[in-house]
Fold:
Amino acid sequence: DADVTQTPRNRITKTGKRIMLECSQTKGHDRMYWYRQDPGLGLRLIYYSFDVKDINKGEISDGYSVSRQAQAKFSLSLESAIPNQTALYFCATSDRGRGNQPQHFGDGTRLSIL
Amino acid sequence: EDKVVQSPLSLVVHEGDTVTLNCSYEVTNFRSLLWYKQEKKAPTFLFMLTSSGIEKKSGRLSSILDKKELFSILNITATQTGDSAIYLCAAPHGSSNTGKLIFGQGTTLQVKP
Structure:
């Protein structure tokens, strides 16, 4: 079983719809992150969380919200989806640890907004 | 503003060739640089570099950091078709120990038989 699981894997929906992407992890990590990936732009951070109920904005948080109700779960919501939110979305986790810890990624959710 | 820039953005080689991927950075309070390989799914961690001039090696892949010139390279020798992927470099940024990463655009490598 994957350590970081994202659902759904693919989603096609219409402009204006509310969408929730789920992420769960079995690694026991405190920190969780949501990124989006667009061609030629690498990964950009949307939101991150260091613990349950802790929420921090990343570089591109407008139009998104998140919820961290449990250590193992971090969900990303698009309240009213728009076409330029079409992208590949990744959830990642990392350990608190000393120094910098590498992040571990889920397999991604490919989201298309029509 | 912190940034990480990779070059080239894409590269096509033949099996057996050696490739060098570049990553330059401007990051306040630089601490480390990370390399990831992304095939069809999740980026997978390759290396973390913290000290200048010390090569990290894993099989045919190796990487080195130059903190004076603010760049890192990832070398792949004797490339195979399975090396085809997007290679991402990233650096922690912001307050120390936040875990936030800033990524480069990625280099798409295609290895032809």
